[in-house]
């Protein structure tokens, strides 16, 4: 074990995006950036009270332990091996960082929120991760998760109210440029902020919502150009803009381009100028297959369907690098009164197979200057059935699967 940790510790510095020409050789030596998505909701965010949910004071953990099985084969509630810890506590997060790095995960992508002129859930990043004593060993970047807040997280809300908007995610052009951009560049200046070719990575979830608030897609483009220039003033090569959603008409609904009232998703991506794209989870790409499957999909079938879409997704925007994604199952029932179709939980061995398929795909399809990057949903999406953290059923099974593929010993395996 001591030898393994020593090898990993000396290798962490190599596990990062190609920041310069001099570091290109490192990327060519088959090192990987393995990104685990962090849903920062398992902590006592003060604004939960504004939403009228999670009265126990520990955030969405309440949905996890209040979950009930809805069918004979339904595995609920899921019990975390580490307990229902406050993820805005830096000592709690320190253990998570160590466990992630030991498995080969070297980047956390934090979902980042802003509603009504104020941050939401940001303390998990600011108070938990960035104050963890070992945080600089782990790279991080943010995804602006700018979706409206609805009744989704309220496990007692009737189905008919689940889509009712409580907070909209609109920000004006002035708020984007004068308030959010300086805040994000503050993160960029952290020594462990993740960069590609010396461009801090900024990931976006909802382009249509951004256009809605900023007064049209032309203002979004203008805002991104401003953001890019401000990053250059801060000493970077610009911003690496990553799209983190499906490239589809649904994702870009109601968006019109100058002199084009009915643009294709590819044309919209090109207009904004995204540098890369990935997906937040598999269900958004495989919705029809999993929702209509009878019987419900096993994870191995879910993985086969979803990995099979990599080539098609990549071709939707060939100017940018597609970074393959791997999800862990899908089960949102802890958030609902009524039963929702699910994918059966992943067996660690099947999850490992999916990781190896993603690894093979990026090896064969990486563009020049791009890292071998793979995203995983998620580190801790417990209420969606997607979590790498250990539970009482599988123990460290999922993290061990990652380690076998990407850890210090696994990176040299075929």
Write the layout of secondary structure elements.
Blueprint: H1 2-11, H2 24-28, E1 32-38, H3 48-51, H4 61-66, H5 90-103, E2 107-115, E3 118-120, H6 123-129, E4 139-144, H7 173-188, E5 195-196, E6 199-204, H8 207-214, H9 217-233, E7 240-244, H10 265-272, E8 276-278, H11 287-292, H12 299-307, H13 310-316, E9 321-322, E10 325-327, H14 348-365, E11 372-377, E12 380-381, E13 386-387, H15 397-406
Parallel strand pairs: 1-2, 1-11, 2-4, 4-6, 6-7, 7-8, 8-9, 10-11
Antiparallel strand pairs: 2-3, 5-6, 12-13
Main sheet specs: 11 strands, mixed
Query: Which structural class do you get from the secondary structure elements?
Result: alpha/beta
The mean pLDDT is: 92
- Distance between the ends: 23 Å
Q: How many individual helices? A: 15
Name the helix and strand elements from N-terminus to C-terminus, one letter apiece. Answer: HHEHHHEEHEHEEHHEHEHHHEEHEEEH
Q: Share of helix among residues? A: 25-40%
The best one-word shape is globular
Question: Got a strand count?
Answer: 13
| Rounded Rg | 20 Å
């Amino acid at each position: 074990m001591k030898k393994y940790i020593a090898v990993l510790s000396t290798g962490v510095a190599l596990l990062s995006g190609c920041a310069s020409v001099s570091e290109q050789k490192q990327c060519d030596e088959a090192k990987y950036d393995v990104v685990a998505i962090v849903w920062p909701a398992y902590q006592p965010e003060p604004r939960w009270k504004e939403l009228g949910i999670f009265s126990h004071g520990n955030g969405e953990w309440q949905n996890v332990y209040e979950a009930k099985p809805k069918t004979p084969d339904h595995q609920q509630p899921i019990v975390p091996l580490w307990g229902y810890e406050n993820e805005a506590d830096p000592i709690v997060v320190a253990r998570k960082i160590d466990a992630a790095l030991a498995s080969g995960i070297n980047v956390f992508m934090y979902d980042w929120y802003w509603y009504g002129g104020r941050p939401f859930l940001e303390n998990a990043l600011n108070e938990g991760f960035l104050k963890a004593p070992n945080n600089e060993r782990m790279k991080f970047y943010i995804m602006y998760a700018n979706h409206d807040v609805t009744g989704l997280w309220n496990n007692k809300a009737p189905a008919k109210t689940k889509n009712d908007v409580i907070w909209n995610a609109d920000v004006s052009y002035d708020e984007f440029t004068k308030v959010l951009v300086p805040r994000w560049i503050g993160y960029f200046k952290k020594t462990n902020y993740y960069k590609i070719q010396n461009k801090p990575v900024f990931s976006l979830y909802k382009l249509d919502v951004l256009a809605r608030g900023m007064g049209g897609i032309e203002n979004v483009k203008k805002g991104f150009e401003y953001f890019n220039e401000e990053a250059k003033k801060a000493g970077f090569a610009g911003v690496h803009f990553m799209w983190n959603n499906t490239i589809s008409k649904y994702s870009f609904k109601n968006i019109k381009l100058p002199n084009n009232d009915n643009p294709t998703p590819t044309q919209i991506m090109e207009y904004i100028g995204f540098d890369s794209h990935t997906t937040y989870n598999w269900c958004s790409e495989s919705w029809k297959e999993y929702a209509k499957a009878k019987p419900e999909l096993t994870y191995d079938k879910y993985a086969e369907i979803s990995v099979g879409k990599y080539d098609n997704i990549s071709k939707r925007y060939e100017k940018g690098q597609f970074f393959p994604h791997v999800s862990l199952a899908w089960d949102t029932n802890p958030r609902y009164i009524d039963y929702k179709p699910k994918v059966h939980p992943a067996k660690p061995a099947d999850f490992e197979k999916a990781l190896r398929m993603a690894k093979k795909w990026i090896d064969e399809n990486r563009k020049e200057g791009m890292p071998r990057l793979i995203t995983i949903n998620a580190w801790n999406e417990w209420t969606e059935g997607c979590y790498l953290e250990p539970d009482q059923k599988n123990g460290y099974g999922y993290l061990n699967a990652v380690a076998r593929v990407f850890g210090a010993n696994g990176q040299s395996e075929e």
